[in-house]
TrEMBL record:
Keywords: Oxidoreductase. Belongs to the nitroreductase family. The keyword Oxidoreductase applies. The keyword NADP does not apply. Residues 8-197 form the Nitroreductase domain. It comes from Bradyrhizobium diversitatis. Coiled coil: none annotated. This is Nitroreductase.
Length: 225
């Protein structure tokens, strides 16, 4: 698939088929994605691929802690609640998703169920936990590198028929993820990618988020036209 078509067609998947993903497919995805740009070729990333019982353990404990009112305990610094235009965009996509799923504004149980799905990593059969070497903190360069790797993963997955969603909710309790996946203390847990074969009957999978027109965030400097 040509790159432009791949990018335009890819979307976040929040409903997955109950079908295992072969290890060889994940290995091929990572083999492609690791060609992502990396500052000074430092390649600060690590990928911990979870499935089966370990993933179920992370899912169960993360959801139980967050549903029980536990505080978020992530390795990376959180931006807190969004405000202004960022909050508006967040609300807009939530409205689209709730609309597609038939969840009414005053339907608190269903809205809570949707939040819990996020804590369960949307019941995906595979989760790729992305970490970087702690010795590189503080600094945004390694974060940038990890973002490039992450985007490479989701594009390579889509090209192979797999859907994914970059899912911070699934690792709200990074301590649990670290314990279950046996992630060393010298690695910082940044995010995870929930992955699996898309369930075409799941309404939210058809939702596409809006993007601003180029003129709202792009400036051209020095062009004659």
């Amino acid at each position: 698939m040509e790159f432009e078509t791949l990018v335009q067609s890819r979307r976040s998947v929040r409903g997955f088929r109950n079908e295992p993903v072969p290890r060889a497919v994940i290995e091929a995805i990572i083999e492609s994605a690791k060609r992502a740009p990396s500052s000074m070729n430092t390649q600060p990333w690590h990928v911990h691929v979870l499935t089966g019982h370990p993933l179920e353990e992370v899912r169960r404990r993360n959801m139980a802690e967050m549903a029980g009112g536990a505080k978020v305990k992530r390795d990376i610094i959180s931006h807190g609640e969004y405000q202004g235009v960022h909050r508006t965009r967040q609300v807009d996509i939530a409205k689209k998703l709730f609309g597609a799923m038939g969840i009414a504004r005053d339907d608190k149980p269903m809205r809570q169920d949707w939040v819990l799905r996020g804590f369960r990593q949307f019941d995906a059969p595979v989760s790729l936990v992305l970490t970087y070497d702690r010795v590189l903190d503080p600094g945004a360069v390694c974060h940038f590198d990890l973002g490039a790797l992450c985007y490479g993963i989701v594009l390579a997955a889509w090209d192979r028929g797999l859907g994914s969603v970059i899912n911070g909710q699934g690792i709200m309790r990074s301590d649990i993820v670290r314990e279950v996946a046996e992630i060393p203390e010298d690695e910082v847990i940044m995010t995870c990618v929930a992955m699996g074969y898309p369930d075409d009957g799941f309404a939210a999978n058809a939702v596409r988020s809006d993007r601003e027109h180029n003129h709202q965030f792009v400036r051209y400097v020095g062009f004659a036209d």
